[in-house]
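Appendix C reproduces, verbatim, an entry submitted by the partner laboratory led by Prof. M.T., so that reviewers can inspect both the input and the predicted structure.
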Amino acid sequence: MSEPDDAGEVDTVRSARTMFDIVECLKVGGGMTVTEVTAELDYAKSTVHRHLRTLETLGYVVRQSDGYHVGLRFFDLGQRARDRQPGYKLARDKVAEIADETAERAQFLVEEHGEAVYLCRSVGERAVMTDPGIGSRIPLHSTAAGKAILAGLSEERLFEVVERTEFEPMTEQTITDSEVLCDELDEIRERGYSFNRQENIEGLNAVGVPVSVDEEVIGALSVSGPSHRLKGEWFEEELPNLLLGAANELELNIAYS
């Protein structure tokens, strides 16, 4: 048997990285030509063209009059990734109930690769629409759901996540220090829920609670809304209690489904 060709392996890895860089570029830009992708990524035009043709042949990219777009094959992959998450369908129904009851935006997020990922979301009649859509990734340390998840992680996993966190400030209120974050996580564990006071988006507050099954956190429920509505007793007591009850029901349904 011949020995592995290290140079060939490196080329294969580099090629895969190039392909995903192109996909990410199209995700953000959309409707991009070969020339535009080349300029954005600073790759050789022939390299970009070759990868785009391969992606198109495989169905992951479509070419239209305004350029290349990511294809719906990614939608199929995303659905499969979402559906394998523990309790997704039950969480989706619970999120809809919470949104109806609070009239605000409710969501269920999970942790993957040290980031918070929106798994499902529902909007109440007064909900404020912000950019993050299903599948969007946001920092754990700047969101209520993210901090609720962090508070439920094992000490080893928490250390891994915090070590790789860049603590980029999203607003002036964002936590940017690991010690400050860890102190707040202690408080969250004690009371059972977390707050986001304009830490991710100016003017937007949120409450989050962890969802655990078999003593392992699998995600978090949260409700977010304008700071002029999410304040006082409603924000500090009533909404947390509502979410704690919803999380308890969801945990039981997942455990015995």
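The longest helix spans residues 6-29. Additional entries are available on request from the coordinating office.
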